[in-house]
Design brief:
This protein is α/β, with parallel strands linked by helices. It has 16 helices and 24 strands.
Length: about 625
């Protein structure tokens, strides 16, 4: 690991009045005739520290650092009036003009990266380059992750301590409750709130917990200023005009040659460090751009492969599933090895399509062409609800519908112990199958989804949204009947039975793989030659809307369950040994069945997995 440069004292410090209220503390260090770089500290409100000067080679750089309004040695300490992102951007220009610098490099981390990007977007003609680390874009979702119910899943003990001073009513919105105490409370209340706020942030900033010492008495005023200013910015959405403002016109930014060159160098350095790690599987390009140019994606992939010729590469997107991006376009137009799609229930579900059905549609569609697997699933909508049992069977749908559609792997955002247990049982059951030799029996039926692959956003169009609804309608129809089928982009050659999303006209095969009793749906995965099969029977009595208010408003649609008799009749030829698992209790039974003989598993609202092996 590279060491920082030695201690570097400033060669000049001065104060600059930027408004009738605010005076800034400014420092210069390094080479007075060197290349100028301006450093933005974090927080907001943290102030500069001696270590920040050590990031820079003193022989090459002329380093300009300053305490932002209300921070460090700037005065008044902790002042919130006339203190916004755009005030700080204007201050930066005043410093540049005062020093007679035409263009400079801009450097920032954490909140400093936010301010660096805001400054660079406002004054691009003054920016020679950008170095940002620990990137924070000031979006509501990022703040909600810290002060809503995101990080609390990782640091539950520290979160409980953070909530401890708050009343039950205040805990509904901890960030705003702390802000009220920091701004409106008396001196004792502000002090206690600030120390608690800063302790939570410090604990949540490290993967491994360490000793957290209380600040020295002389440092308490700065601690209070930091907490006040952070809360001031966060409750006001960073003073941005719209959420995600820094990502506006992102396509232009991504394709800027200087930005791409910077990304390439960063990728080469990171890959050089991690590529020999024994746990490395591949590299993921997480693309948040709508209609990403194929040339940009292929350039990024080529850069990664030039640095590591052996590892696999994939791309992933936001949590809207097909509405975020079309996997078929990425598989056809870019050089990825596999695709990773994210699917959150808000926006992808409807009164006609529960989350499990949405997972089935996405993973069934994603199984076309190159390999694919789900990345993030469930998401922040599950950070504070629904109830424990609903979360469990939602997790179960994700695992089993993903697996039986041939998409290995799944990651459940905000997973808790009960959901992790679902993975353990699924892994135990899947261990009964020799996946290395398993080849899926091709179904007799395909539903065509013809559409142009001009870009990856077709499912956002009116025609694409109608097609998505029709995909769900077909999937629901055949899940109710235990019938296997595929989606196909264009050609349905090789499938005796064919349909299209243009119209709902579902052909019925002469005999489905399985018949299932009312109140259940069944998903099948059959080995070629029909010697083995894996079934997922999910209890389904309808669809229910769930709404959460924290950390923000979500609306999603999940399945409901009610007691029903489960009777599964396999039409696979021959005699089978059937192992069944109650996925709610973990209970296991073994049966022997003939083709056409029903397997009765009693009346319950539970879900079941069934493994059939020809004897």
């Amino acid at each position: 690991m590279r060491e920082l440069f030695p201690d570097l004292p400033p060669y000049r410090s001065f104060r600059l009045r930027v408004s009738p209220l605010h005076d800034l503390h400014v420092e210069e260090a390094g080479n007075p005739h060197g290349k100028p770089v301006v450093f933005f500290h974090g927080g907001p409100g943290a102030g500069i520290a001696p270590i920040h000067r050590r990031f820079f080679d003193p022989a090459f750089w002329r380093v300009i650092l300053f305490d932002q309004r209300g921070s460090g040695k700037s005065t008044p300490l902790g002042e919130l009036r006339e203190n916004t992102t755009w005030d700080l951007v204007a201050d930066t220009e005043k410093i540049r003009d005062h020093l007679g610098i035409d263009r400079w490099l801009v450097f920032g981390g954490s909140w400093g990266s936010t301010l660096a990007l805001a400054y660079a977007e406002t004054h691009p003609e003054r920016v020679q380059g950008l170095i940002v680390r620990g990137i924070f874009l000031g979006r509501r979702a990022e703040v909600a992750w810290t002060f809503g119910e995101g990080l609390q899943q990782i640091y539950p003990d520290a979160w409980e301590e953070f909530l401890a001073p708050l009343s039950e009513a205040e805990r509904r919105d901890p960030m705003r409750s702390y802000h009220a105490r920091l701004v409106n409370g008396d001196a004792k209340t502000r002090r206690a709130a600030a120390l608690s706020w800063n302790l939570w942030e410090e604990r949540a900033s490290y993967l491994l917990p360490g000793e957290m010492k209380p600040p020295a008495e002389e440092d308490v005023p700065a601690e209070i200023a930091l907490a006040r200013i952070e809360a001031h910015y966060f409750v006001n959405d960073g003073f941005f005009r719209s959420d995600g403002e820094l990502l506006a016109s992102i396509a232009d930014k991504y394709t800027d040659p200087d930005v791409i060159a910077c990304q390439d160098q960063y990728a080469r350095e990171i890959i050089g460090i991690v590529k020999h790690h024994p746990l490395l599987f591949g590299y993921e390009l997480e693309n948040e751009m709508v209609a990403c140019p194929a040339a940009w994606a292929n350039h990024a992939l080529a850069t990664v492969r030039a640095a590591d010729q052996e590892a696999l590469c994939c791309v992933s997107h936001g949590g809207g599933g097909l509405h975020s991006a079309d996997p078929a376009w990425w598989k056809a137009r870019t050089a990825i090895d596999f695709y990773s799609y994210h699917l959150y229930p808000a926006g992808s579900t409807s009164p006609e399509m529960d989350y499990g059905l949405a997972v089935d549609v996405l993973t069934r569609y994603g199984s076309m062409g190159k390999p694919a697997f789900p990345g993030e699933s469930a998401g922040d909508e599950f950070s504070s609800g629904p109830d424990r049992e609903t979360r469990r069977w939602t997790m179960r749908d994700i695992i089993w519908l993903t697996l039986l559609n041939g998409n290995p792997g799944c990651f459940f955002w905000n997973a808790r112990g009960s959901e992790v247990a679902e993975f353990k049982l699924a892994n135990e059951i899947a261990g009964h199958i020799d996946w290395g030799s398993f080849k899926r029996q091709r179904p007799a039926l395909a539903v065509a989804v013809p559409h142009p692959l001009d870009d990856d956003r077709w499912f956002r169009s009116e025609a694409g949204q109608a097609a998505y609804a029709m995909l769900g309608r077909y999937a629901l129809h055949y899940l109710n009947r235990g019938t296997a089928f595929d989606f196909a982009l264009e050609s349905t050659d090789g499938y005796p039975l064919r349909a299209s999303v243009a119209k709902f006209e579902p052909p019925e095969p002469p005999a489905a793989d399985c018949a299932v009793s009312a109140g259940y749906q069944v998903k099948t995965l059959v080995r070629e030659g029909q010697t083995e099969a894996l079934l997922y029977a999910r209890n389904f009595s309808g669809i229910k809307a769930w709404e959460n208010q924290q950390p923000r408003h979500w609306k999603m649609y999940l399945r409901e369950r009610r007691p029903a008799m489960l009777r599964v009749t396999t039409r696979l030829p021959g005699r089978y040994e059937a192992d069944s698992w109650d996925l709610d209790t973990g209970g296991h039974q073994r049966h022997t069945l003939q083709a056409g003989e029903p397997l009765e598993l009693g009346v319950s609202e539970h879900d079941f997995a069934i493994h059939l092996q020809r004897r």
